[in-house]
Specification:
The structure holds two protein chains of two kinds. Chain A is an alpha/beta fold. Chain A has helices at residues 2-20, 50-66, 81-89, 102-111, 147-156, 171-183, 195-203, 218-223, 269-284, 286-294, 304-325, and strands at 39-43, 70-74, 96-101, 123-138, 162-165, 188-191, 209-213, 227-232, 256-264. Chain A has two domains: 2-131 and 258-325, Bordetella uptake gene, domain 1 (D-Maltodextrin-Binding Protein, domain 2, 3-Layer(aba) Sandwich); 133-232, 3-Layer(aba) Sandwich (D-Maltodextrin-Binding Protein, domain 2), CATH 3.40.190.10. In chain A, strands 1, 2, 3, 4, 5, 6, 7, 8 and 9 form a nine-stranded mixed sheet that branches. Chain B has 23 helices and two strands. Classes of the chains: A alpha/beta, B mainly alpha.
Chain lengths: 328, 504
């Protein structure tokens, strides 16, 4: 596979160059100088996860396209708010960016009222990258093949079926509460610490259902240890073409964990434009786009302004869900 | 496919010149990184991850895995020589390893450590080879009920670890459990004891606590006592070799430690720290001289070393066969595979046999490399003791700070580690041992999580713990251990040999 090894090579060359660089912060004079110094991309997760891999790939590709060093900086903790706080406090000179996602911007500020930033006012949301959708998966032992089958079972036996989410206040948990109130069902919530242990329990038939991101469950579906019942996407997913959406089932429930690039408030619009255009070029490269497909990240076109508006709109959507769920 | 065939495939992969070379690079780097206090395998694997993208997947995995288990060898070196564990799991090796070094037997202790590590590592490999396909299913038999029972067993064992009396041990375990409650409660989502800070919302990190109460506290204590260095100690070859009496005490503890380590390693999330503590505690119970533990007995060093290295190998089973990483370091290794488009999981054994078996066979090479690498280096390590403390200890503090910072790029963690250093120093002045605290800190929150999850799943019915055969067996074992340690020594054997006849 020549394409893959090229990607890998770019990844290594970009990252190793970046590792050698020291980050000396100097204010950028104008957008023509940008990037004049190494650019760090803050990731709100520890190394090794899906987001971290996305950031490392983009860092290598952006670094090559802009002839600069892009460094990934992992700042995990407190639902991503540690990372977002660090981004807010950084200088808006284009040398500190963040691989932004749903939780720190559209969920945590409502969930934790003491979050020290405003998710819209304190940031420049530069580019939308893509997103993953939430799905509902059943253990085969539950002997339910479809969404309707589940509804029948749950309505006949209220409180007997349990479901896992990746934690209290996680997007899966919030959506599960909305799901229960929309469908008028009663199921028992089992919170986990992250989705890894939850998938282990689904595999081991300990828990009946999981609300979990779709891509990580595809291997389990293929193996026959997880049955996809419904996805919370606007339309059917290419990776699960036979699984209906909640919209089809008559409920307006879409849950996307979006990924984007954000910067501190007050970023020079010219820098934002350069960054957005470069990112679009990078994402259009066949090997990069193939890698995103493999990771199950669904992409669509969005301008910088549309992305900014999307973050704000989603904030309201999730605030309403959180208020109704009682997770606050 | 037969076992022999699998092993041949593995041998073919692992014995290629490239893979052998990267295996050596991995274990070599791992040893050195393990020696440095605070800088653990996580930092090393994270740094090497980008390099691994450039390598074929099996070579990448062989190298990263080498760093991982190589660090277990190195971690105990600083524990023995300086009473500062290089990795949290080496904390147990301080208990008997450091007294050995103080008695002038540093070389012997390091040799025994290297051999015990090799023994444990190879034992873990044998367990993988014999049971790998079925061990994955075994891990799936463990629901929250069984995990809870293992944690109970571990906590009871932990309070026995203390050599300064059971009461002090239990107190320290409880303090550890309390520290473990800091942060977001998994079941209710309530933030506990964070003082309203964002940094404490996820609780306190294991490395932060371990490096504080063991590392920083040791530096502070040595500054106060200004103890003489070991200058002038003869480090000739004869001093390195354990005597016949030492070897006589080697085999039994090594086998028991390896058994405990292999078992604990297969449970995702428990890892080497639990393995070494549990092994030590159990050994202390079966020993004929438990009162000598903590004074520098061979068993007290051999058991945790064989246990943590066995666990380091078997920890790959859940990671590769279930795709569930037991630790952040393991998650990084999964990341290395995912970049190459390989999904770890039950199908990996059939789809990529050369990868799985190649890795397993590379463990054998890696462990042998480690022994070859470590024995000649022992003389060098012992010389570290001759470095004047006013040079050595500032360097140690610096390394700890760098290591703690690198975990989450957080300055707050560095200050926290220093605060734990003060706590550890005060505890030491009052003769409270930090080891049981560390195990309470690790196991307490896990025990709570599994207990509450089990109760949720069984809708509040506590008898479910006794209805499931796995958890019932483990809980009975825990009760037996508790009774065994509560009743004075000799009572049981007296009862067995003489019945209830009154003493003459």
């Amino acid at each position: 596979m020549p394409t893959k090894s090229t990607t890998a090579f770019r990844l290594i060359s970009g990252i190793s160059a970046a590792t050698l660089a020291t980050s000396v912060a100097m204010p950028a004079l104008s957008q023509e100088d940008w990037p004049s110094d190494p650019v760090s991309i803050i990731v709100s997760f520890p190394p090794g996860g899906a987001s971290d891999l996305v950031a490392r790939l983009l860092a290598a590709e952006l670094g090559e396209a802009l002839d600069a060093q892009f460094v990934v900086e992992n700042r995990p903790g407190a639902g991503g708010t540690v990372a977002a706080t660090a981004l807010m406090e950084a200088a808006p000179d284009g040398h500190t960016l963040m691989l932004s996602n749903l939780t720190p911007f559209d969920v945590a500020p409502t969930l934790f009222p003491d979050t020290p930033y405003d998710p819209i006012e304190d940031f420049t949301h530069v580019s939308y990258i893509g997103g993953v959708y939430l799905g509902l998966f059943a253990a085969p032992s539950l002997e339910v093949e479809t969404f309707e089958g589940l509804m029948e079972l749950v309505r006949a036996n209220p409180g007997s079926v349990d479901y896992g989410t990746s934690g209290v206040g996680s997007w899966g948990h919030i959506v599960s509460e909305t799901f229960k109130s929309l469908t008028g069902t009663d199921m028992v919530h089992i919170p986990y610490q992250g989705s890894g242990p939850m998938r282990q329990d689904l595999r081991a038939d300990v828990v009946d259902l999981t609300f979990d991101a779709v891509p990580q469950n595809l291997p389990l579906v293929e193996e026959g240890v997880a049955v996809p019942l419904v996805v919370m996407a606007p339309e059917r997913l290419e990776t699960l073409p036979d699984t209906p959406t909640m919209v089809e089932a008559g409920h307006d429930l879409v849950a996307e964990n979006w990924l984007g690039i954000s910067a501190p408030a007050g970023l020079d619009p010219a820098i934002a434009e350069t960054l957005d255009e470069t990112l679009a070029d990078v994402m259009a490269e066949p090997e990069v786009s193939a890698q995103f497909d493999e990771w199950g990240i669904v992409r669509r076109e969005m301008t910088g302004e549309e992305f900014s508006a999307y973050v704000a709109e989603q904030f309201d959507v999730w605030a309403e869900r959180i208020a109704a769920s009682g997770a606050q | 496919m037969g076992l022999i065939e699998n092993l041949l495939i593995g041998f073919e992969t692992a014995a290629s010149a490239q893979n052998l070379a990267y295996c050596f690079v991995g274990v070599f780097l791992g040893t050195f990184i393990g020696v440095l206090p605070g800088v653990g395998p996580l930092a090393a694997v994270a740094m090497l991850l980008p390099v691994s993208f450039y390598l074929p997947p099996e070579t990448a995995l062989v190298m990263l895995a080498g760093v991982y288990y190589g660090a277990e060898y190195g971690g105990s070196i600083a524990a023995i020589l300086l009473n500062i564990p290089g990795t949290p799991s080496a904390s147990v090796s301080c208990i008997d390893g450091y007294p050995m070094a103080r008695a002038g037997r540093a070389g012997v202790a390091l040799t025994l450590t290297a051999v015990a590590s090799l023994f444990g590592g190879l034992f873990g490999v044998v367990v993988i080879v014999a049971l790998a396909p079925r061990l994955a299913e075994f891990a799936l038999l463990f629901g929250p009920w069984e995990y809870f029972a293992v944690m109970v067993l571990g906590l009871i064992a932990a309070s026995i670890v203390s050599s300064s009396g059971a009461l002090r041990g239990v107190m320290m375990v409880c303090l550890g459990i309390l520290l473990g409650t800091v942060g977001l409660d998994i079941t209710s989502g309530v933030v506990r004891y964070s003082g309203g800070t964002q940094e404490l919302r996820d609780g306190v990190g294991l490395v932060v606590v371990a490096m504080g109460v063991f590392g920083i506290a040791e530096v502070m204590a040595s500054a106060r006592t200004n103890r003489p260095s070991y200058a002038g100690e003869n480090v000739g070859l004869r001093k390195l070799l354990p005597g016949r009496a030492d070897w006589g005490r080697f085999t039994g503890p090594a086998v028991r430690g390896s058994l405990v380590g292999s078992f604990v390693g297969t449970l995702p999330g428990t890892g080497q720290t639990v393995a070494s503590f549990l092994g030590y505690a159990l050994e202390k119970r079966v020993s004929r001289r438990p009162e000598d533990f903590g004074t520098g007995v061979v068993e007290g060093l051999v058991v945790p070393e064989s246990a943590n290295n066995a666990a380091a190998q078997t920890a790959f089973i859940p990671t590769l066969t279930l795709g569930i990483p037991g630790s952040t370091t393991m998650a990084l290794m999964l990341g290395a595979l995912m970049v190459h488009g390989i999904d770890p999981g039950p199908r990996m054994l059939s789809q990529h046999p050369e990868l799985f078996w190649g890795l397993v066979v590379s463990f054998v090479f890696g462990n042998l490399f480690l022994l070859i690498l470590n024995i000649p280096l022992i003389g060098l390590w012992v010389r570290v003791l001759r470095v004047p403390h006013h040079f050595l200890y500032p360097a140690v503090v610096l390394l700890i700070c760098v290591g703690v910072y690198s975990i989450a790029n957080s300055m707050f963690d560095v200050w926290l580690a220093l605060a734990f250093g003060f706590l550890g120093y005060i505890l030491r002045l009052w003769r409270y041992e930090p080891a049981p605290m560390l195990i309470g800190f690790v196991l307490g929150p896990m025990m709570e999580e599994y207990f509450r999850r089990a109760m949720l799943l069984s809708r509040g019915d506590a008898t479910s713990f006794l209805e499931r055969p796995g958890s019932a067996t483990l809980l009975v074992a825990a009760l037996a251990l508790l009774l065994w340690s509560a009743v004075p020594r000799g009572t049981w054997s007296r009862l067995l040999t003489r019945g209830f006849a009154p003493k003459r």
